[in-house]
Amino acid sequence: MSGTDRAADWWATGITDIAPGSIRLRGYAIQDLIGSVSFSELVWLMVRGELPTSAEAELLELTLVAAVDHGPQAPSIAAARMAASCGLDLNNAMATGVNLLGDVHGGAGQQCLEVLHQLRATTDDGVAPEQAARDLVADHKARKAFVPGFGHRFHPRDPRRDPLIGAVRQAAEAGTVSGEYLRLALALEEVLAEGTKPVPMNVDGATATIHAELGFAPELARGLFVLSRSVGLLAHSWEQRNEPTRIKGPLPKSVIPTYTGPPPRDLP
């Protein structure tokens, strides 16, 4: 192998084929894709390697729309707005928000998808979905851990849950998806509704159900959430850039954070 060949293989990829005057994504010429496929179809093609059916693309698009934004009370949005108020360019402000999306804020979709895979493995061993869900909830309670994808700190019932679950239910009835993960997610929700305070599914649980039905890996679920939330980050960063307030911190200037250290004292 020549030195040139070794250099060409350094970033070998099966995604994009570039040559002078030619751009191909997964083998398809970009000029053929433009105007022929939707953005959600292109996302699927890029991460999965093949084009989805129109029904699969519609389901994926629902998840991308649902997770776009949750206002400045979401830490990622607030951070992006603070960054924009400090004069950072849009890409820097957006990156500030994206970098806040981790396991605690932004990771529940991936975590819920992992839970659904765990339940699927249990039911494949012969355990009924309801019992598998009951055992999983009992385990989380024993560890004092939240079941990811259920409950919301702001919404008594997440308004995004019903349209997403309704769509995946219709897709299961039409044969677009198997409905296996939908049954598991609903079994979990039923068990969590048995307590004194029901814990309904939230947007992360609903999107995880769709991602599971569509065959996306858990890590891709988080990446898709970041992709969706980036739209909100862009909108809020742009809005903040066009407001006169500079160096906008997490609290109004008139509000001083509560001090909890030692009282005033003199140096010895």
TrEMBL record:
Family annotation (NCBIfam families): PRK06224.1-1
Record GO terms (molecular function): citrate synthase activity
Originating species: Kribbella amoyensis
Name the record gives this protein: citrate synthase (unknown stereospecificity)
Family under the similarity heading: Belongs to the citrate synthase family.
Keywords carried by this UniProt record: Transferase
Gene Ontology cellular component list: cytosol
GO BP: carbohydrate metabolic process; tricarboxylic acid cycle
SUPFAM superfamilies with a match to the protein in the record: Citrate synthase
Region feature (Disordered): 244-268
InterPro entries documented for this protein: Citrate_synth-like_lrg_a-sub, Citrate_synth-like_sm_a-sub, Citrate_synthase, Citrate_synthase_sf
Pathway the protein takes part in: Carbohydrate metabolism; tricarboxylic acid cycle
EC identifiers of the protein: 2.3.3.16
A Pfam entry, by short name: Citrate_synt
Top-level taxonomic group: Bacteria
